[in-house]
Write a structure and sequence with these properties.
Blueprint: H1 3-13, H2 28-33, H3 44-47, E1 65-68, E2 71-75, E3 79-84, E4 89-94
Antiparallel strand pairs: 1-2, 2-3, 3-4
């Protein structure tokens, strides 16, 4: 699991008024983390709400934009968010 990637996706595409939530349904969160052969059960507190969601990134100062082929970024008042689709990695750098 790459929770930084998941949070970076959310921050890149987040609208002015947005929230993330979960519940007992088999929706995005279950299909996203569950896979055959997983060595442990899903921990709803740890897996479905990564610690990165508790950070204060400020407010967006720009829209998501492509900085190079397959690499997207967005500036926030307190962080820079980058998703590299070529490497399937997310980076959140606090300012």
């Amino acid at each position: 699991m790459n929770s930084a990637l998941d949070v970076a996706y959310f921050l890149l595409t987040r609208a002015p008024f947005a929230w993330i939530g979960g519940g007992p349904m088999l929706g995005w969160h279950m299909s996203h983390w569950w896979r055959p052969g997983k060595s442990r059960r899903i921990s709803f507190r740890d897996d479905l709400r990564p610690a990165q969601f508790n950070a204060d990134y400020g407010v967006p100062t720009s829209n998501c934009s492509a900085s190079s082929a397959g690499v997207y970024s967005r500036e926030w008042t307190k962080a820079t968010v980058i998703v590299d689709c070529n490497k399937l990695s997310g980076t959140i750098t606090m300012k």
